[in-house]
Design a protein that fits this description.
Aspartate Aminotransferase, domain 2; Aspartate Aminotransferase, domain 1; seven-stranded mixed beta sheet; 16 helices; 12 strands; globular; binds pyridoxal-5'-phosphate; pyridoxal phosphate binding; pyridoxal phosphate; Pyridoxal-dependent decarboxylase; carboxy-lyase activity
Length: 487
């Protein structure tokens, strides 16, 4: 993959200049033309006015904001082809197009990449991203836990899909649904809002002195509350630190608790899942352990536009409960979408009946292309380079008197792809992120840690070359821009 790096490295600047941004803004068109401007003029406008004002996260390796990822050359090539042929993957029509079968092959290979048995995850689908996948997880979980509660309470079958939440809860004898988690990504609360559970149903049951890990006493106390149905959502990994919530033993314990109390076990593994691609070795033993036991979950959220390095937008969702998914997402009463199942293919569920969208883009093709182009070995190497860079940056920060690595006393073996840190000089720390980003050769994102500003490097690009990137980072951290006047 590295041989292709030159393909993208035609700039070292991470951000557009203020002049490029100002120029683009001055050229934006917001009044619909009567007679159109024509293809050529619009192409020229986009290339010369707008493109220079885009961020360059996909053009350089030294962009470390927000776990954006980039796009591998194979995925970029395939995305162009997907658009060129404008394939929709709504219904499986085996006589019309191979597209849905390609999607299913891509999903099977994704399972294999992260060491999950495709047969165990029959409800698998590409989504617009991890937020959408979390919505799927809570929607399926909500249906499941009420069915389990109704059965346990001796009532007949219930269906949120048909009856709606209040009626299904009443029939199941449940007066509260909660999502039990620790340091969740913000999108989990958004997902709870969308599926009608509400943000306030998301309860943090993390330990006081290690907030990213479950307090099992608090978890079990919440699960055993009478009249309550629960979804357990595991953060894999935490967005500020990259820390993993669970060990393999923890996963077994959560599985056992979920079975005991009729709860649904969901893992938000947007970027943590790719740790399963890393080699099993001493250097990665903490990371190996952090993603062990994931096969015990009912559902898993993954992001492909992050560490898989395919274009926006692309997430995925795996669940063990296909029949349940069909109940929730069935696109009822659309006879014109019914499918004549041919004997030439095995049964692949039509995506419209197991996911949010009806019409949907062929986001599977870039995944199919990148997985077949680079294989398990290519991705293992890519993840290995990313973790090595994050650890090299963390080591440098730790050894520098000007910076401190966070959280305190964090051993390097804990570092996955994120290095969280701050400047020791509080004055410098105040606008450290702006100063670093003003160099335009390195980009970090800001956050809060222990109530004070902090910055974070999130390594997520397939292009990373450890020594080259480390040299740039050191240079920037040794000389963050003195002034932020021209920001
Ligand atoms: C990024 C992220 C999300 C949201 O993903 P989108 O693709 O932006 O919707 C959810 N959960 C975790 C843990 C994430 O890192």
């Amino acid at each position: 993959m590295n041989a292709e790096a030159q393909f993208f490295q035609n700039t070292t600047e991470v951000l557009p200049s203020p002049q490029d941004l100002a120029h683009a803004r001055s050229q934006l068109i917001s009044t619909l033309p009567g007679p159109g401007n024509g293809l050529e003029r619009v192409r020229e406008h986009i290339q010369t006015d707008l493109v220079p004002a885009f961020d360059r996260h996909n053009k350089v390796a030294n962009y470390y904001g927000f776990v954006t990822g980039g796009t591998t050359p194979a995925s970029l090539m395939a995305d162009h082809i997907a658009v060129d042929h404008d394939q929709s993957t709504m219904v499986h029509l085996p006589k019309d197009s191979i597209a849905v079968e390609v999607e299913d092959c891509a999903l099977q290979m994704l399972c294999q990449l992260v060491d999950l048995e495709p047969e165990q995850w029959p409800h698998r689908i590409f989504t617009t991203g991890a937020t959408a996948s979390n919505i799927l997880g809570l929607a399926c979980g909500r249906e499941y836990v009420l069915k389990r509660a109704a059965a346990a309470n001796g009532y007949g079958d219930v269906s949120v899909a048909d009856d709606g939440l209040p009626e299904a809860m009443r029939k199941a004898g449940i007066n509260k649904i909660q999502v039990l988690t620790e340091m969740p990504h913000s999108s989990l609360r958004k997902a709870a809002s969308v599926v009608g559970l509400g943000r306030s149903c998301v309860l943090d049951v993390g330990l006081t002195d290690a907030a990213h890990r479950f307090d099992f006493e608090a978890l079990e106390a919440a699960l055993s509350e009478p009249g309550t149905a629960s979804i357990v959502s595991i953060s894999c990994a935490e967005i500020n630190t990259g820390f993993f919530a669970t060990s393999g033993d923890d996963m077994q314990r959560i599985r056992q608790l979920c079975d005991q109390y009729g709860a649904w076990m969901h893992v938000d593994a947007a970027f943590g899942l790719m740790a399963r691609v890393l080699p099993q070795c001493d250097a990665y033993s903490i990371l190996n352990e952090g993603v062990r036991g994931m096969e015990l979950a009912d559902s898993i959220t993954g992001d492909a536009h992050k560490l898989l390095n395919v274009p926006y937008d692309c997430g995925f969702f795996f669940s063990k409960h296909l029949a349940l998914a069909t109940e929730v997402f069935q696109n009822n009463n659309a006879a014109y979408l019914s499918v004549a199942t041919g004997s030439e293919t095995r049964a692949i569920p039509s995506p419209l009946n197991i996911g949010i969208e009806n019409s949907r883009r062929f986001r599977a093709l870039p995944v199919y292309a990148t997985l077949t182009a680079y294989g398990r070995d290519g991705y293992r190497d890519m993840m290995d380079r990313q973790v090595k860079l994050a650890r090299a940056i963390a080591s440098y920060i730790e050894s520098s008197p000007d910076y401190e690595l966070l959280p305190k006393d964090n051993p390097i073996e804990n570092v996955y792809i994120i290095a969280l840190f701050r400047a020791t000089d509080p004055k410098l720390n105040e606008d450290l992120v702006q100063r670093i980003n003003a160099t335009r050769t390195t980009y970090v994102s800001g956050t809060q840690w222990d109530g004070r500003p902090a910055a974070r490097f999130a390594v997520a690009s397939w292009q990373v070359q450890v020594e080259r990137e480390l040299a740039t980072v050191k240079e920037v951290l040794e000389n963050p821009r003195a002034t932020t006047e021209d920001l």
